[in-house]
Write a structure and sequence with these properties.
The complex is a heterodimer. By secondary structure, chain A is mainly alpha-helical. Chain A has helices at about 5-45, 50-55, 70-100, 105-120, 120-135, 140-165, 170-180, 185-210, 215-220, 245-255, 260-290; strands at about 60, 65. Chain B is an alpha/beta fold. Classes of the chains: A mainly alpha, B alpha/beta.
């Protein structure tokens, strides 16, 4: 026996090599758009990027100056919407995963969650306008816009939290029940501590989604321009209108003539980097929490 | 007939359905106090289902209907005034795959007690004594006394399973249910778990589901043979294996099906 390569074997080896290169190429092409987008944005925005750009008011009819009110407005909207959506979403997910049985009622809730997640953001915007701005008399305000964003992020938070809860092995729950623990004791003592990393990741990922949306806040609380004191964190009140990064980007790119191109690109860089940083933070947080749990 | 105190668990005409499928049919058994009783039978015969009835944990798994009566220490556990929490303190369960909680060894042993008491009601010294006693009873104290703060899920499987038994003891259970407690373990570990059960048997009533007929012969004084949801034969283990009264029992123990 010589174990020499046959003709068919050579052909197979060649095909194997080709397949590997093709698949590798496809995988690499996934990073290419991201690198190109970020690179292009930075290249275009370079002249304007500075700390001052972040903390200054727009000037000369938004053709100069910084993005401070938009940055702060986005921060307000995202924070308040998540403060509203998180407790509701996590509680609903706990009910669905830990308490409910499989019957028509819970299937109805699942159906509602899935469909709510699929509703286009412009429809959320109209709903927010009708429900919060007009019906609840909140007016066009940060609160109304945050509530609209909360409704939009809620189904995804429910779904991701439910998935995180479901990843905790059933055996742990059985162990708790078999010594007489109630469901709530089981959830608080064992299920939540072991799923918190997944729950947090799901919530943090919604930060980027809420920060990026324009439509839901456009009708409900975001404005083209709002003068606030520079550099003060508590410049907005709950019932004020506010500027927001996504809306600002839309405004200065399409609605205002003769804006120097570095300005919208600078705004885009801030928006994209915020999203990337938040996502990176969530990955780091998850890795850290995972490293502390082992089973 | 014998005095009522003799039996820890008695069932009368117990029927159980999963949806439309009837998993237990007219089961009437009396399980003696302070003995090891094994439940044997081929897969799907209802032995695990019967076991899970005794602490009513079946009910957590969806569409289950039960009729009939189960008395534990003379009390029907389907009565409206029975608290599941108190029932499960009295009737502990050990699972097929060791399932220590992902917390320290120390906290695993105390877990049951902690959830049944107001927080902070144990002085440290008392808690230490409880942990030591429970671990000594399952022969783990010498192995683990220096790693009480280790995460229980990092222990060897045998130690994990012993810990799962130790976890029940501070609650002072009357009955300990075991669902194939050794099927995830190797031969040596199996042997030591069996010894442990035999050592503890006088203080607790054990009901052990097993696939392993040799194990049933080694550890149990009484044996219940089930087939297709029915109890076929219940007698002293040595009688059941040496002189089975039923044709189907002898066919099973001779290995003609299973």
């Amino acid at each position: 026996m010589t174990f020499g390569e046959t003709k068919l074997g050579r052909k197979k080896r060649r095909n194997e090599a080709i397949a590997k290169v093709v698949f590798l190429g496809m995988a690499l092409s996934m990073i290419l758009p991201l690198v190109l987008i970020v690179g292009y944005l930075f290249h275009q925005a370079w002249p304007i990027l500075s700390l001052d750009f972040l903390t200054a008011m727009p000037r000369r009819g938004m053709r100069d100056g910084g993005i401070w009110p938009a940055l702060l407005g986005t921060f307000y909207l995202v924070t308040i919407s998540l403060v509203i959506a998180t407790p509701i979403g996590v509680a609903a997910a706990i009910y669905l995963n830990e308490y409910s049985r499989d019957n028509w009622f819970t299937r109805l809730i699942h159906l509602a969650v899935v469909n709510l997640a699929g509703v286009p953001s412009i429809v959320h915007a109209l709903f927010g306008l009708g429900a919060f701005v007009m019906f609840a008399h909140l007016g066009r305000s940060i609160l109304a816009a945050s509530l609209t964003l909360a409704i939009m992020t809620l189904p995804v938070i429910i779904a991701s939290t439910k998935e995180a809860l479901a990843s905790v092995p059933m055996a742990f729950r059985e162990a708790c029940w078999s010594v007489g623990a109630t469901r709530w004791q089981t959830i608080r003592g064992i299920v939540l501590p072991n799923s918190i990393s997944g729950i947090l990741t799901g919530i943090i990922l919604q930060v980027s989604r809420a920060a990026g949306e324009t439509a839901p806040i456009m009708f409900t609380g975001a404005v083209f321009y709002k003068a606030i004191p520079e550099g003060r964190l508590f410049a907005y009140g709950l019932f004020d209108q506010c500027m927001a990064l996504s809306m600002h980007l839309f405004t200065i790119s399409t609605q205002v003539p003769e804006v120097p191109p570095a300005l919208p690109f600078g705004t885009a860089v801030v928006l994209v980097m915020t999203v990337l940083l938040v996502n990176a933070a969530s990955i780091a947080l998850r890795a850290w929490l995972r490293s502390r749990k082992k089973w | 007939m014998s005095a009522p105190g003799e039996f820890s668990v008695t069932t009368r005409q117990l029927n159980l359905w999963y949806g439309r499928f009837q998993a237990l049919k007219e089961v009437s058994v009396s399980i003696r106090h302070g003995l090891v009783t094994s439940l044997i039978g081929p897969s799907g015969c209802g032995k695990t289902t019967l076991l899970r009835c005794f602490n009513r944990v079946n009910e957590r798994y969806g569409n289950v209907t039960t009729t009939g009566e189960i008395k534990i220490l003379g009390k029907n556990i389907y009565d409206a005034d029975v608290s599941l929490i108190e029932l499960r303190k009295c009737v502990g369960m050990v699972f097929q795959r060791p399932n220590p909680l992902p917390i320290s060894v120390y906290e695993n042993v105390l877990f049951g007690l902690r959830i049944h008491h107001e927080s902070g009601s144990f002085p440290k010294a008392q808690a230490d004594a409880i942990v030591e006693q429970a671990l000594r009873e399952v022969n783990l104290w010498e192995d683990l006394k220096d790693q009480l703060q280790a995460r229980a899920t990092t222990l060897q499987l045998e130690q994990q399973q012993k810990l799962c038994i130790a976890r029940l003891l501070p609650l002072k259970p009357e009955v300990i249910l075991m669902d194939e407690p050794c099927s995830a373990l190797d031969a040596k570990a199996t042997h030591r778990i069996e010894e442990l059960v035999m050592g503890l048997q006088e203080r607790y009533t054990f009901v052990v589901v097993t696939h392993n007929m040799a194990q049933a012969r080694r550890i149990s004084q009484e044996c219940i043979f089930m087939l297709l949801g029915e109890v076929i034969e219940h007698s002293a283990t040595k009688d059941l294996f040496l002189h089975p009264r039923q044709e189907r029992t002898s066919e099973y123990i001779e290995g003609r099906y299973g």
